[in-house]
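Annual report, structural modelling task.

Input specification for the pyridoxal-5'-phosphate complex:
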Amino acid sequence: MEVPFARPLFTEADGAAVAEAVMSGWVSQGPRVRAFEEAFAARVGAKEAVATTNCTTALQLALYVAGVGPGDEVVIPSLSFIATANAVWQNGATPVFADIDPDTYNLDPQSAERAISDRTKAIMPVHQIGLPADMDEFQRIASKHGLLLVEDAACAVGATYKGRPIGSLNSPACFSLHPRKVITTGEGGMITTNDPELAARMRKLRQHAMDLSDLARHNASDIVFEAYPERGWNMRMTDMQAALGLCQLEALDEILAERARQAARYTAAIAELPYLEPPFEPEYAVRTWQSYAVRVDPRSPVNRTELMRRLHRDGVATRRGIMAIHHEPAYADPKALLPHTDAAAREVLLLPLFPGLGDDAQDHVIERLAAHLVAAKAA
Ligand SMILES: Cc1ncc(COP(=O)(O)O)c(C=O)c1O
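The model returned the following structure:
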């Protein structure tokens, strides 16, 4: 049996909605993009949502309007996808890595506070694989040091922190709509904020800072000439993507419920297996189960990488857990002391989990895990 790692959930209605956008003739930055922004903001309890080309550009833009630029530092976790650091670099600023909480794999507030220098402008916690970071603590540290917060919420659409949806807290939150995420528009990003002025500025900056939107020009009763009061980028989402996003958003609750069901099945099975630690479940948060991360005990005779190799031979696709950015040549920092990050990067793997993964396929994954680990324990 071949078990893929992840697969987006698309229906015929999704395809029809995209086709309708094409046939409407308005394929970029049109009414569907606006409708998607409104629906997204409503879903996560934010006043505003601003669509972009992807989460990396969303993070870049949110940091830019927070005033992050050359000479500034932004504290981030090293244990994250490299896009978290690249978004800082795209603003000419320097990412400074702090360690994680070994249970949640999220940025540790104390470690982040220790990484603050007189050049620090912002802290960017990541809601890693859809588990919210400890935002009250980050808000406290940010106000104590006069810093801004931007949330990397790439994997966190539908997650809640102390009962409040991610996206509704008082910092800009940036979401990814990449196919590996809970819902997808192929590529795509979204920034939520409760500040309408900030949202208006971001909508201009994503379109070369043009002071007139396509929608406003279209609806104008006379000719209008646009102006460019500052410099900006092209971070425009298409209406085909937005049409798909509107459909995906409608399926979000169903997708989250199915992901949670599969995660509970893994957790029950893993409780019976040697050398595996299921994901930590904090009481303060509801996560998205963007991925199911298991930790292989360093005392296991079959280590994380060897277990992945054996599962691969069994037809089960897995991925390593979250990368450590400071281990990569692009951001190599041999002096960084991040022991919890180093351990998580070495010991964690992600198991297949997606709507459409049948129980029989999931049982096969569990059975293969058991075969390798129970045999190793007996040997
Ligand atoms: C934590 C994190 N931040 C940022 C990104 C970048 O998202 P995108 O691919 O939409 O640019 C990802 C994507 O995997 C991610 O996992």
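The chain is about 40% helix and 15% strand.
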